[in-house]
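Regression check, NDP case 399:
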Amino acid sequence: MSIFVNEGEAHKRPNPQRVAILGASGSIGSQTLDVCRQHADRLDVVAITVYDSVSFAAKAAREFGCRHVVIANEARRNDPALADMPEQAEVTFGPEALEELVRSDDVDSVVSAVVGFAGIRAGYAALKAGKALMYANKESLVVGGDLLMPLVKPGQLIPVDSEHSAIYQCLVGEHRSDLYRIWLTCSGGPFYGMGREELSHVTAAMALKHPTWSMGSKITIDSATLMNKGLEVLEAHHLFEVPVDQVNVLVHPQSMVHSMVEFSDGVVKAQLGPSDMRIPIQYALSFPERWETPCERVDYRDVCDFSFGHADEEAFGCLRLAKEAGRTGGTMPCVMNAANEVANLAFRQGRCGFLDIEATVEAVMGVHDVAPVESLAQLEELDSKARDAARAYLEGIAS
Ligand code: NDP
Ligand code: MG
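Current build output:
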């Protein structure tokens, strides 16, 4: 099946939509709750999930009258904050509960805003169960796109990532065969313009000051290393069925153009708008409609500084490595992603330097024997082994 809405019957949405938000306590999750507050007549939040944030879940379940709450971390079964959970909410625990939830007859639409590869089983289960899927969880698409994308019916999976939402919006009404290439915009991150010597001294605190977006800590570091852009190239490759080298990264520090699509006749469509993640989140939920938003409007007459440029793959090796993993395909993106998740966390915790992130990814990719992607169990086993290899590499350079 295809993601393209004009290449098959579009997946239908009921009104109101009964929405489950996976990763409700995170940056995307909380902004999704904001969108649902704004459109309470159209969006009924029936379920939320968190990993550790039990108090957050109790508060949100009360506000939205949720019938289901999943705490993905089993170790929270005796959390004192569970006492604050409203009576109507059935609370379940663990990763299997997440999969069960997305299959529930009470749920029409699933917003997957879990961070990291951990979100893959729920995304897979949502697609299998025929639910509409608003997908922010890019790592699982990068790793398991070969398994997830064949399940997608036209209009069933709508990307939430701002660039991919932009590309999707440019593609509505177009045919896959007319797509020539994609221009994936990139703010450049907080260290744009720096060389290797300077990058070797940057800290997590410096990286956490992203110039445009306020996001969760993992993606903020990925934005600084440009691994986020690398993951997004692979995300676009899977979502839009284009070879990795037909997705060009375009540095655009103003973050006003959210991405562009170039067609066979040379025409380029771009999507512009305020830099507010609630817009792509809402589009994924409102599709194929558009709903009003309270976001600040841009007066384009005041926009005088608008620039495009190349990304520096020599200085920012994570972008180069992610693209390499995408070109290789098969299980290579799985180990690339696992090594990055481990090194990203180590950098956030002050256990390694900025450039050690790419060194770890390169080392783990370097010893991997690529195979075709066959199953979720295979990916989980490889993910776990690659994480061990990344930890061993980091321990080795620390001693
Ligand atoms: P956050 O770290 O802010 O939130 C992550 C959410 O996932 C939290 O609710 C967290 O729960 C939950 N979670 C963490 N680990 C697990 C696990 N193992 N199993 C189940 N749930 C878990 O992340 P973001 O919101 O920034 O990002 C979410 C996803 O969206 C990522 O894939 C990211 O790349 C993507 N994205 C984010 C953007 C942004 O602006 N933030 C933009 C585009 C894409 P708890 O709070 O309890 O730990
Ligand atoms: Mg993005």
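Comparison notes: Residues 283 and 290 are 6 Å apart (CA to CA). The radius of gyration is 20 Å. No diff flagged against the previous build.
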